[in-house]
Design brief:
By secondary structure, the protein is an alpha+beta fold. The protein has three domains: 14-120, Quinolinate phosphoribosyl transferase, N-terminal domain (Aldehyde Oxidoreductase, domain 3, Alpha-Beta Complex); 192-261, no CATH class; 294-400, Aminopeptidase (3-Layer(aba) Sandwich), CATH 3.40.630. It has 15 helices and 15 strands. The longest helix has 24 residues, at 104-127. The radius of gyration is 29 Å and the shape is flat.
Length: 405
């Protein structure tokens, strides 16, 4: 897979190693040089499960050894692309202590990051096994050396997932490291800037297709916040490309909003139905309870709107408190709509909804927040304890659904 890559200079060069390594290794080298060298064996391991991606590290190590005239015995215990457990030796390196001791820092730089990134790539590909991934590491990397490590890692992790039935990574976004994916050039069609220049997704697609008629067309459809509408419009404009499987869409929707027509609750419902591993593989059980837990959850937040105008006036909802107090009622309204009973009506509805599912609901209010305390008391909640938070006295309220005697 690397045949298309040009030869790279040794990075860092042998002369630069002392400045790039941790100082205690340089001092160790000086001490061992003074008191006598020995043959040593390094057992190189990582403290978390990874996918073996040692090629860049070993290539560098062998190049340094050749330049220094070091005789090394290197044993790779886990072949590239295989699973490595936490703490399991990945490589054994035997040789001169003087010759090896100042190489550890840089060797681990070139080994650890690719192995962890390969593991992440592997998990991504298995989570969405029918998706073809393009590695776009270059813009997120701190320099060309990291760019190469991440491209290599994506190729290794993707190949490992492909052996288990996933499509994996089919390429990357730039020419310099495309060889890791068996390609001569990078993939990609258009950034957001081209959409803005063209004025619409359809026009941008037309311009690209006219300029590169032989290329597959991947259209970025989140620019105007109409991901579904604009994707369908592009399909209608290029039905032949869509039918031939040469039309695809890229989503880069930012974290400040959801894809067109979705909200938190619907988004997680879609993921749970079609790709549950995408949630469960990347979120802790605590996070899942907040986001998609059974009964009530953080997704149980309701918007309160004026029935006549549809104007947003506030929210009410239920969430599981992280301090262990239980399912909590929350509400907040614009200042200009307070004093008309909206908070009491909305919070009461949320409380009744909760009691259809759980016997006990709590709420927290500052002692000084008389308005919220009146709302809580008005819907039947009673204070049961107090505590200090950031110098303020907080009151804990509860509502316990009567049990059947």
């Amino acid at each position: 897979m690397m045949d298309n890559l040009p030869p790279e200079p040794l990075m860092p060069a042998v002369a630069d190693i002392p400045a790039r390594t941790d100082s205690y290794f340089n001092r160790t080298k000086a001490i061992v040089t003074r008191f006598g060298d020995r043959q040593v064996t390094y057992a190189v391991f990582l403290r978390r499960p990874v996918i073996s991606a040692p090629r860049l590290a070993l290539d560098w190590l062998r190049a340094v050894a050749a330049e220094r005239g070091l005789a090394l015995d290197i044993t790779l215990t886990h072949e590239e692309g295989t699973w490595v457990g936490a703490g399991e030796p990945l490589i054994y390196i035997t040789g001169s202590f003087v010759g090896l001791t100042d190489l550890e820092t840089i060797l681990l730089q070139k080994l650890g990051a690719p192995c962890v990134a390969a593991h992440n790539a592997y998990q991504m590909c298995l989570t969405l096994p029918k998706a073809a991934f393009i590695a776009m590491e270059a813009r997120h990397c701190a320099g060309s050396e990291m760019e190469e490590m991440m491209a290599y890692a994506a190729s290794v992790g993707g190949a490992a997932a492909r052996r288990e039935g996933a499509i994996g990574f089919i390429g990357n976004a730039n020419d310099a490291t495309a060889g890791y994916f068996g390609r001569a050039a990078g993939l990609g069609t258009m950034p957001h800037a081209l959409i803005g220049y063209a004025g619409s997704n359809v026009r941008a697609a037309e311009m690209f297709h006219e300029t590169f008629p032989a290329e597959n067309l991947t259209v970025l459809v989140d620019y105007f916040g109409r991901e579904i509408t604009d994707a369908l419009a592009v399909c209608r404009r290029f039905p032949a490309l869509a039918a031939a499987g040469k039309l695809a869409f890229r989503l880069d929707t930012h974290g400040g909003r959801f894809i067109e027509t979705l909200d938190p609750q619907v988004s997680y419902a879609v993921l749970e139905q079609h790709a549950p591993g995408a949630i469960r593989r990347y979120r802790s059980e605590t996070e899942l309870r907040f986001l998609v837990g059974t009964g009530v959850s953080a997704a149980g937040i309701w918007a309160v709107r004026d029935a006549a105008s549809g104007a947003f006036e506030g929210i009410t909802g239920l969430m599981e408190r992280p301090d262990g107090r239980g399912i909590a009622l929350r509400f907040a309204f614009w200042v200009h709509v307070r004093g008309h009973g909206l908070a009491r009506e909305a919070a009461g509805a949320a409380l009744r909804f909760a009691h259809q599912r759980v016997p006990r609901v709590v709420a927290i209010a500052r002692e000084s927040n008389i308005s919220s305390r009146l709302v809580l008391g008005g819907i039947g909640m009673r204070p049961y304890e107090s505590f200090m938070r950031d110098g303020e006295l907080m009151l804990s309220y509860e509502s316990v659904y009567p049990t059947k005697g």
